[in-house]
Design goal:
This protein is 29% helix and 9% strand. The chain has a 7-stranded parallel β-sheet with strand order 1-2-3-4-5-6-7. It contains 8 helices and 7 strands; from the N terminus they run H-H-E-H-E-H-E-H-E-H-E-H-E-E-H. With 353 residues, it is of the alpha/beta class. It is globular, with a radius of gyration of 18 Å. Strand 4, helix 6 and strand 5 form a beta-alpha-beta unit.
């Protein structure tokens, strides 16, 4: 598997409702504190200055930052836990992750409530929430993040609920990591299943774009997932890219920004100039090589989330995969996909430039 590898959606906690937290395991959201637990206040680097903590809770919003810094992420919860254990040095290191804006993954559990609450908190803090919609039927080809909606009708109802929950609040949505690329590899999503998937993605774009303040980016794989740009562009067109704001690359992967920008530019040219976003959450040292997408060693945090990329056509660098959450049990005893893994998180933060 050369893609984002998704991840199991485990229960996570969000204020007084359902869970929050999440990530991509090669790509997606994962386990955080169970229902009923509350998040203690967290402060640290990047906290303070313009924006204050305001309605954002314990983690203050970074001055000048477009995107919302949530204090409900797995990393933020872990900072609180480390401080409670007197492990202050590790807590400060982990703040390099927790104090930056990252994405809120939405899966089968509580998506509507989470979308409503996170987008509302972001709006109250004067920021924009970033979401990942991740519930397509036959998700992740039955691999680490198998699951998703049971059928097309259930998916349409799910995505409509998410769109309605966002209302007219500002939000960026990365749509269904791996979904398009898997129709072009050996996954088995072919023929009628592929046609159904393209239709569902186009429907999702249409529903989400009913919100005039929503930006939607269809996932488009990564530079190591060998595909013909023209073939991928054709699949994206079937998936509603014309109505979307663009596409996303490198979700939950490790390729360096130059390589992602070149890959995105080639695909953009095939799509008539569509813009794109890059997942830089773990790209600081680039990819390890080959098929080493599953918790490779020696990786580092990449460029911090920003809309000021300095690259034509690149709308933002985003932390779509939440750093520190496992890509899955890669055969070496790692946590399951999406679970927060402190040693790996600390390694990413310590190696960051």
């Amino acid at each position: 598997m050369r893609g984002a590898a998704g991840a199991l959606l485990a229960g996570v906690v969000l204020a007084a409702v359902s869970g929050c937290g999440g990530s991509a395991g090669g790509g997606a959201p994962g386990a955080a504190p169970g229902a009923g637990q509350s998040s203690a206040a967290v402060t640290g680097p990047g906290s303070g200055g313009a924006g204050g903590s305001g309605a954002g809770g314990g983690l203050a919003q970074i001055p000048g930052q477009t995107f919302y810094v949530s204090d409900r992420t797995n990393a933020a919860h872990q900072v609180t836990a480390l401080r409670g254990q007197g492990r202050t040095a590790e807590a400060e290191t982990l703040l390099r992750i927790a104090a930056q804006p990252s994405s809120q993954w939405l899966g089968e559990q509580g998506a509507r409530e989470i979308a409503e609450q996170v987008s509302r908190r972001a709006t109250e803090a004067g920021r924009t929430a970033v979401f990942v919609a991740y519930d397509i039927p036959h998700r992740d080809c039955g691999q680490y993040s198998a699951g998703g909606a049971p059928d097309a009708a259930a998916y349409r109802a799910w995505i409509t609920g998410v769109a309605q929950a966002l209302g007219d609040r500002k939000a960026w949505v990365v749509l269904e990591p791996d979904a398009v690329a898997h129709t072009l590899d050996t996954c088995g999503i072919k023929g009628d299943l592929a046609a159904e998937r393209y239709g569902l993605l186009a429907f999702a774009v249409q529903e989400l774009k009913k919100n005039p303040n929503a930006r939607v980016y269809l996932d488009a794989g990564n530079p190591g997932w060998a595909q013909d740009p023209e073939e991928l562009a054709a699949a994206l067109r079937k998936s509603g890219i014309a109505a979307a704001d663009g596409f996303a690359v490198n979700v939950a992967n490790f390729y360096d920004t130059d390589r992602n920008a070149a890959y995105g530019a080639r695909l953009s040219a095939a799509l008539g100039g569509k813009n794109f976003v890059i997942d830089t959450s773990r790209s600081g040292n680039g990819a390890l090589g080959g098929d080493a997408w599953c918790n490779p060693s020696g990786r580092a945090l990449g460029e911090r989330p920003t809309t000021e990329t300095g690259r034509p056509g690149v709308d933002a660098y985003l932390w779509i995969k939440n750093p520190g959450e496992s890509d899955g049990d890669c055969g070496r005893g790692e946590p399951r996909a999406g679970e927060f893994w402190l040693p790996y998180a600390l390694g990413l933060a310590q190696a960051a430039r």
